[in-house]
Design brief:
The protein is α+β, with helices and mostly antiparallel strands. It has 2 domains: 3-73, Orthogonal Bundle (Arc Repressor Mutant, subunit A); 87-171, Arc Repressor Mutant, subunit A (Orthogonal Bundle). It contains 9 helices and 5 strands, in the order H-H-H-E-E-H-H-E-H-H-E-E-H-H. The strands form 2 sheets. The chain has a 3-stranded antiparallel beta sheet.
């Protein structure tokens, strides 16, 4: 493995969030964007070929080392992880993800019950954020998802969310 690949690996491992290609180029300084993108593809391939416990994935606008998804049951067993979100919070998050930007009243209407508690938990977990206020009487807050949402759910961007057709196919 050459030095540039080693540096890229070290930078990604040291980063607390997905590391963007532009940031890698800026930090290294001696390589251009095309070279960094090429090296990243090589690293992704190296980890895929190795078939180890970790992989390099592009997520939320950058690259991050992650455990292989098929090894999740062992990670949960080790950490004693419970479900990250309640069904109520997951439903609320799904509504916000697909309908954003959205106000609480719209979420309440879709769910049929008050979503205030779930919205509060999602804000605390930094999966959603307040994007501003809607220009209507009462000026309700507008909600949308965060970069952390993309990281947690392994999405590059919102276009990676499954479509309604794909969800229907999964149910069948």
């Amino acid at each position: 493995m050459d030095e540039v690949k080693s540096i890229i690996e070290a930078l990604i491992l040291a980063s607390e969030s997905p590391l963007a290609v532009d940031k890698i180029v800026e930090v290294i300084g001696t390589a251009d964007k095309k070279e960094i993108e090429h090296r990243l593809k090589e690293i992704v391939h190296d980890y895929q070929e190795r078939k180890g416990g970790i992989c390099l994935q592009e997520v939320a606008g950058g690259f991050q080392f992650r455990t292989r998804s098929d090894l999740g049951p062992w990670i949960k067993k080790l950490k004693g992880l419970r479900s990250f979100l309640t069904p109520t919070s997951l439903e609320t998050l799904a509504i916000i993800a697909y309908r954003q930007p959205v106000v609480k009243a719209d979420v309440d209407k879709i769910r049929g019950v008050d979503a205030g508690g779930a919205i509060k938990k999602l804000l605390e977990k930094k999966l959603i954020r307040i994007m501003g206020r809607k220009d209507v009487p009462g000026k309700p807050m507008i909600y949308g998802t965060t970069k952390k949402f993309l990281e947690v759910y392994n999405l590059q961007d919102l276009s990676d969310l499954p479509t309604l057709q794909e969800l229907k196919e999964l149910q069948q």
